[in-house]
Amino acid sequence: MKILYAIQGTGNGHLSRAIELAPFLVKKAKVDFLISGKSSELRFQYPFKYMYHGLGFYFGNNGGPQYLKSILNIRPIRLLIDILKCPVRDYDFIISDFEPVSAWAASLRNVPCIAMSHHASFLSMKVPRPKNISRFFEWGMKWYAPSRNHIGVHYLPYDKDIFSPVIRNEIVESQVSDKGYITVYLPAYADEILISHFIKFPDYHWKVFSKKTDVFYKQNNIEVYPVDKERYRKELVSCHSAIVGAGFQATSEALFLSKKMLVVPMKAQYEQKCNAAALKKLGIAIVDHIKEDFPVRLESWLKSEKPVYPKIECGTERIVERLFELVKI
Q1: Per residue in 10-46, is it b (16+ CB within 10 Å) or e — as a string?
Q2: What CATH number has the domain bearing residue 209?
């Protein structure tokens, strides 16, 4: 059996999931890999046979996506050509982790496709949403990378075929400790904005991971690191608490490690608003965005006790089992 595993390359979550799932598939079938819109810092262990421009977005510096730059980066004619040329008929099955080129190519040619992603979980209305539901973004999550078969991934199994998160094996096998510092990963904010707030709390040790720098630097009680998979893992498993965006992978890992967490969803990013709504129900502190009153909110969180979270399991094995059932291998 030949499988095309297609991955959305924007951010780290999709690729991080593929890094864990791909070895199971490679043992069972002939698998080729496709990626579109690559802006991830992670390295994939297999070569990509196909690389497309795709549809992605750019992070800003003030808490949200750079929509103008993202819109200007859309190349509709190239996207259409890529969809028409994508050789999905060479495969028995397509697995799409929110990847639009392969999903639309499979849909147009009636090739079996499984949507296996966090976004696929939102096809169920049992998954938590923010108070103000966006019909436009709900429509977008349904049709961005369409498929008839779905495997959703979320914090809890809210509905049928929704499984627990895929947690990196290095995280699962890590020795968890508490060395007292706070790990921060807020890629949509400029370093200067974060430092201006954290420096007001000199009694705390901050370790900030930034997409905006290529070198390590330190300012008083704040250490700033370029994004690095292994370094981030080490600082996450040994931190006292974490401040992260509402991206699914980062929050899932912190939950799995049972770390006290403050979550700042990216502005105007509906998926992250949905994640924040789900996390709030689990007792996690949410700050909608960083503005003038952030130090007050931050101080309150720093002094608060860690709530009791439900135990988050690693869903890798169950997801693989379900994939094999659908693909019939």
Answers
A1: bbbbbbbbbbbbbebbeeebebbbbbbbbebebebee
A2: 3.40.50.2000
